[in-house]
Write a structure and sequence with these properties.
Helix content: 10-25%
Distance between the termini: 59 Å
Number of strands: 7
Structural class: alpha/beta
Largest sheet: 5 strands, mixed
Length: 134
């Protein structure tokens, strides 16, 4: 029994999970969440047409996951987004906050820690050039 004069205190802390592509679409989309999906996209300062085409394909996939909830994809140019986000890059076209990321060995998806927000993950869609990222 808890009396009417009692208090309950809940302390939470973020748990860092292993970066594992097998968990997709989580942590970027949680199918148990009933709210609209808001997933930031990040680009280099001047994204090319092929990069924007790739972003449209990724947005379509996440939009399909979100289904009736709807989806928004706020954009940041050359600055790290808040929270979990998707970043589009090639070896020659990448946001400045990913300059230290190792070059691509071909088309790849990488999960990396978000330098702006601890405990957040970036899904980096990258390739050596635009042709590898399609």
């Amino acid at each position: 029994e808890v009396s009417g004069s009692g208090d309950v205190e809940l302390v939470t802390r973020r748990i860092d999970l292993a970066e594992d592509l097998a968990r997709l679409p989580e942590p970027f989309f949680d199918p148990r969440d009933q709210r609209r999906l808001v997933l930031p996209f990040a680009f280099a300062a001047r994204p090319s047409r092929p990069t924007l085409r790739t972003a449209a394909i990724v947005a379509s996939w996440f939009g399909q996951q979100a289904a009736w909830r709807g989806a928004r994809f706020p954009v940041s140019l050359d600055s790290p987004p808040d929270g979990h986000a998707v970043v589009f890059a090639t070896d020659t076209e990448r946001p400045s906050f990913l300059r230290g990321l190792a070059p691509a060995k071909g088309p790849e998806l990488r999960l990396v820690a978000n330098p702006a927000i601890g405990g957040s993950t970036l899904l980096v869609v990258m390739g050596r050039n635009h042709h590898e990222r399609r």
